[in-house]
Amino acid sequence: MDVRSGPSKHLFLQGTAVLTIAALLIKIMSAAYRVPYQNIVGDIGFYIYQQVYPFYGIAIMLATTGFPVIISKMMIEFVEKGNASSNSKILRVSFLFLFAVGLIFYLILYIGSDQLASFMGDPELAPLIRVISFSFLLVPFVSILRGYFQGEENMLPTAVSQVAEQGIRVLTILIFSYLLINNGYSLYEAGQGALFGSLTGGFAAFILLAVFLSKDKRGVSFFGKNDSSIRTSHILSYLVKHSLTISITSLMIIFIQLIDAMQLYSELLKNGFEMSDAKRMKGIYDRGQPLIQLGTVVATSFSLSLVPLIAYAKRSGNHAVISERITASLKICTVVGAGASAGLIMIMEPLNIMLFKNESGTEVLAVLSLSVIFTSYSLTLAAILQGLNYTVFPAFAVLIGTAAKLALNELLVPEFGTAGAAFATVAAYGVIAGLNTGYLKSKGYGLAGRVNTGKVAAAALIMMGALFAYSALFSESWMAGNRLAASAGALCGALFGGTIYLIAILKLSIFTQKELEAFPGGKKLGAFLK
């Protein structure tokens, strides 16, 4: 039974829009700060940070899109089964479960830091792993409050806390790393200072959420009377099941990064590279992470805003609306993801110089750019499947893709180095996207269609041709490594390529007039280019 209707439904959808905007800001900040950070600490310093970052990424995803979603879903689904004490029991049992999970992660990382660092091939990473382990102790406190507010359909506290957490974290990272490097501390000590941002950001989020709770008129008691009809075993089984599905799905990108953190540097050492060279190569390879994030964020932010509508249509049995929303979200994802991948490949050299001071690793980063389309598609498909209440298979697809990444790294890195790892990443995301596509089709839902896919490919090729000519004309200006010239070349190339791609998309009629009208200014733009 769906207990929400009318104004409540609109309130929930407005709240989802608030969370989508917050997620967009967070992803932009998460990608953007890595550029000045790399500029401060260099490629080896960037390698040090990125080696440990996936552990923090697990904590932040669990506290952002993992546990709060599970708790809020439980509050919404169980609300009809009890009285006001039901929420208290859900929150109390959930907190104890999350505290146990956070404590286990903390102990594994803190006690096992030396073993993990040795396994990664760099024992000096152990103190950084110990710093990051403390972030898991904050996860239950932040998650339970976010889950409570989301369950009450109040998304503002979650959104504000997420943006504040990321903003303070980014400031801490950049300020501490700058001060430590300029005062003669080592790159590893600068990395510890940067990772301290995980704690400052988490504390800021908790304080903000506590302030919101103190002003909450509902006055929920986390330790109310235990007279709810909901069984503790039911709550725990729900938490376990959804922790292993929703959380695994949300950790897709982090898992792929973690494989590289655990494997790539040690594999480079095994294949004869000196320690400093291997660290520098891994740091250059990690330049691709912010590029993938920025390339992915636009596609997924447009598409994921449609997912709540899919969930509501599913509940009401409106299959026509479901098909329409799925087709629209996948079409947007395909267009934006393909354009971002193709554009990044063509302007990678000046973009690399603009962001990271030199052209090192341009070819590897170009290969990694291919993963943008598959990453966008995988995230969107997973969200659609979750909206349709198919939560198990997307998690299964992530595990298969992660296993594929692990196996391909073992096969390709010894032969091709970081380029092999880049190909393995693209293939892993391709596997996840392919599995989710097949599963969605098996449930009887149509996709974007071969004709539209062909048109998008044609538009991307037109843009790539135009950018190839552009590079042929102006590449001499940045080939000498002039950062200012490269910046101008990258930005002008992005504007030129984006304009060509947009015109091609509209001229090929990939979007219907009705679909265009859903975009700001889309109606006028479509009429202008007819």
Topology:
Elements: H1 7-32, H2 34-78, H3 84-111, H4 113-119, H5 126-133, H6 135-151, H7 156-182, H8 187-195, H9 197-214, H10 232-243, H11 246-250, H12 252-270, H13 275-285, H14 288-304, H15 307-316, H16 319-346, H17 348-356, H18 362-369, H19 371-387, H20 392-416, H21 418-442, H22 450-474, H23 476-479, H24 483-507, H25 513-517, H26 522-528
Helix pairs in contact: 1-7, 1-14, 2-3, 2-5, 2-6, 2-7, 2-8, 2-10, 2-12, 2-13, 3-5, 3-6, 3-10, 4-5, 5-8, 6-9, 7-8, 7-9, 12-13, 12-20, 12-21, 14-16, 14-18, 14-19, 15-16, 15-19, 16-18, 16-19, 16-22, 16-24, 17-24, 18-21, 19-21, 20-21, 22-24
Using the CA coordinates, give the radius of gyration. Answer: 23 Å
Nearest-integer average pLDDT = 84
Task: Please state roughly what percent of the residues sit in beta strands, choosing from under 5%, 5-15%, 15-25%, 25-35%, 35-45% or over 45%.
Answer: under 5%
SSE string, helices as H and strands as E: HHHHHHHHHHHHHHHHHHHHHHHHHH
Number of strands: 0
The number of helical elements comes to: 26
Q: Which of globular, elongated, flat, extended, rod-shaped describes the shape?
A: globular
- Largest sheet data: none
Number of domains: 2
**How many angstroms separate the termini?**
47 Å
The secondary structure category is mainly alpha
Low-confidence runs of at least 5 consecutive residues: 1-7
InterPro entries: PG_synth_SpoVB, Poly_Biosynth_Transport, Polysacc_synth
Keywords: Cell membrane, Membrane, Transmembrane, Transmembrane helix
Transmembrane segments: 12-33, 53-72, 93-111, 131-149, 170-188, 194-214, 235-259, 291-312, 332-353, 365-385, 392-408, 420-440, 452-473, 485-506
Main location: membrane
